[in-house]
Amino acid sequence: MPTLRRSLLALAAGLAVFGTLLFATPASAYANAFFHTQTTGNRGVDVQTIQYLLTHHGHQTTADGIFGSGTTASVRAFQTSKGLAVDGIVGPATWAALVPQISQGASGPAVRALQVQLNEKRRLSLSVNGTFDAATTSAVRTFQQHAGIGVDGIAGPVTWRNLVWHYGYPDLSAGLCDKDPDGNGTANWATAAGVAQLERATSVFAGTGNGQVPLGDAGFEHGGSIPGHSSHQVGLDVDIWPIRTDSAQCTAGRITWRDAAYDRDATRALARAIRDAAPGHVRLIFFNDPVLIQEGLTTQYPNHDNHLHVRYCERVHPNSLYTC
Q: Which stretches are transmembrane (predicted)?
């Protein structure tokens, strides 16, 4: 009898564990999600979101996705109104005060902020109409399911934090061509700022007439370890290839700075465009051309003869390697 009782208890315990696994909330795809700090010099959809949210709170701000002096002034005014430290930097505390809880039926700039986030982070094409309609509700619910958080169609603090943290995918029409040197597929995901700053740089470079910029690996959609790279895990590292004298870097073989087909002047212009597109937010560019190193444009690092490794940074970041 005791043996039967122990067997029944064991069976009950097993069923309880199975039920927990079956009905528990799924693990978050990114359990350590945080609000990316944005400040003067950043650009992208996270900046545009901040601008819409500032307007939502009564601080009219142009939603152009560029964190300039006007946005800084609005942030400082908002921080003053909320009793926050007044530094013009949108870090975790300012983000938390900015994001409202909104749901179907809401309207206005906060809804536009939500819609541009969903479009960028989930590669959607919602109408950015400022109306929290059925399509927006559906997109929120789908994102919540994707993120492994409560699925209710309401954009509250947890949904905003996970959405802002989520990486974006670059527009390859912005002077880019996609390359896959390490067999990682479309590992082109990066933070919203990283994506927009790269797009701006390559769009400017396209105007030089030196062809498109080959994009190697950036990262996976939710970050994490990526084969062939010791970094590229936090959405702020991007590999691009040097420029050739025949401008055929997207169709011909990859070269090093030592090759006769290497175009130093054009690669210099590319490095400058990268820095100019993200003032104060380029931590370094690894590339071993000694002339560009001497000019202060790039930094020497082993195994970086045939590609430029751009490392973007944020004013505050959990990893000190990515702090500006």
A: none
